Automatic annotation (TrEMBL):
Domain of life: Bacteria
UniProt name for this protein: sucrose-phosphate synthase
InterPro entries cross-referenced by the UniProt entry: Glyco_trans_1 (IPR001296), Glyco_trans_4-like_N (IPR028098), HAD-like_sf (IPR036412), HAD_sf (IPR023214), SPP-like_dom (IPR006380), SPS (IPR044161), Sucrose_P_synth_Pase-like_dom (IPR012821), SucroseP_synth_GlycoTrfase_dom (IPR012822)
Annotated ranges, domain Sucrose phosphatase-like: 471-708
Organism classification: Bacteria, Pseudomonadati, Pseudomonadota, Gammaproteobacteria, Thiotrichales
Alphabetical list of NCBIfam families matching this protein: sucr_P_syn_N (TIGR02472), sucr_syn_bact_C (TIGR02471)
Annotated keywords: Glycosyltransferase, Transferase
Organism: Candidatus Thiothrix anitrata
GO molecular function: glycosyltransferase activity
Amino acid sequence: MTPDDHQPYIVLLSIHGLIRGHNLELGRDADTGGQTKYVVELARALGANAQVGRVDLLTRRVDDPTLSADYAQPRETLSDNVQIVRIDCGEAGYLPKEQLWDSLDSFADSALEYLKQQARLPDILHSHYADAGYVGVRLASLLGIPLVHTGHSLGRSKRRQLLAAGHSKEALETRYHITRRIEAEETTLGVAERVITSTQQEVQEQYALYDHYRPEHMRVIPPGTDLEQFYPPPADSPASPMQAELARFLTQPDKPMILALSRPDPRKNIVELVSAYGESPELQQLANLVIVAGNRDDIRDLDSGAQEVLSDILLTVDQYDLYGKVAYPKHHQAHDVPDLYRLAAASKGVFINPALTEPFGLTLIEAAASGLPIVATDDGGPTDIIGNCRNGYLINPLDRADMATKLLQVLTSGQQAWETLAQQGLQGVRHHYSWQAHVEKYLAELRPLLARTEASAPVILKRRKQLHHDRALFSDLDQNLLGKPEALAPFLTTLQDNRRCVLFGIATGRRLDAAIQLMKRHRIPLPDVLITSLGTEIYYAPNLLPDTAWERHIDHLWNPRIIRRVLDGLPGLKLQAKREQSRFKISYYIDPEIAPDLQQLNRLLHQEGQAANVLQSFGQFLDITPVRASKGLALRWFADQRDIPLERILAAGGSGADADMLRGNTLAVVVANRHHEELSELVQEGVNIFFATRPYADGILEAIEHYQFFQSCEVSA
């Protein structure tokens, strides 16, 4: 397999996982998923381009009696100029990627020997994932060949996810070798001359976490979509099993379909969609709603988050009496997904992604490729997709009226307008999101590297002067950031100017959806960490990843049924609306004139064996949370997870709910408008708090000056 001297020879490196050219075993384990599919499809697409001479995909050879013999073959031909080359790496049997680190030098040496045996050296090395990045750096350095890298997932983000899921720092090192992985990624980012990402958000919010963050070397090229799998419905398409499955839910199954497809995750915002549909008689008359939210046998067997979402879907269907209008099948297979899109397109329906946040939006591209107009959240990837394809509308995912209006706009615009959206989507996908389009953009980015006649100059790796994110700033939302719009912009600018050394957190009593809605209204970017519902929930950017370890931690001595039994009916207490309640927060209105005081309420709970935090704020709100949950405790949990000393955390609060954020070793500030009597006890206790003379965000800026908070935040370019 010898390439033309005038056409590039490209080597792709993807070391772990089970890689072959047919029947990919996607989902067999954590290492055989999107990346393996991506690199095989990329290799094929590159080889199909007339400008490319040869493509080798180098991966690990696996000789394991429990697996197919395909993975033990040294060579596998994918086309005339594309092949998979399998190289020995450590022991012969299959190993997860975390166990390969000690064998990567051997892989690199064997890969070097293979490349030297070829008629000519490759023109480009493209590494995929951290382990391949480690090998790619060695090969690029030895051969003087430009290195291109795609991270797929990043160690710093993974570390956050694992800590949020309850893994200890020791386990991260023992099981995942996370520090070694992050170090490999740092070096790779320092050496790679191009880094290929899927979205600009990925660049700004994930790669920006690294010391060797070089945005000038990063290029956004979305992955391609398999147009042989996702295509519009043919005129004579036969009935399908999925069609029959949906029909058993629906009184009028021939109506247009509003299709939503996602995991049963609160961040996907499906319950809000059902509510929007339930509040719109016109939508109900025009279309059926189809919710495909994972697979289940018994909701009670699922994790708590999925249980809550699916239970709320069923309760909302019942609340609005949507029986016969909403389908929510229990099971579907991967091969049913394209069929679902085509069924919706054949019905002249619409696909909706109402997620609170959506970094990319692969389902939107799949729907567009199937000839289906789309409606999607105005966050992240959907903005780019709809901007490129012009095949639908963006929505505020927390505005039910906006959601219903945009769905009606698609469904009532007439057949010609619907067809226009569908055709624009098809054309947009082919132009921007097909593998052919991906390869054309990819090759355009490689041309400056290919045009060089000399080996690349060695890159001098230079670390920033300060550890990335070595401090944090937390603020209440309503009373500290809002109230004076002209003060908010300079505050956000100051944060942005120092973003490489400071993490920004918001701690609020509001629920997640209400907090996000307020931030959208005031154009406050999503913070790095969002503590909601009075410290009972912690979410991490960019995907609003919930800290499930925190949930398990605070679910201690927590018996909401008994607490309600004790407090319900007491004079001066009135339970707040359901939307203000959550799994770990019980909220009342309190009339202090006639209600028992906090000491009495605590005594009543103690008499029933209940230990909980009882908080009164603004003179009218009473909240009960688990004894382990509060804003201050959540802040300290976060600080411990990120290894940030409390002395390097600036906490801005004001109401009684903020008191324990301000106690202790944090740098505390109360802005001028929030000199609240609920904090008077802190002054009496001698707590060291800075009382700003300026209000709202101006007061936080004053505290930044007072504490010289960013004085040592000198980050090299």
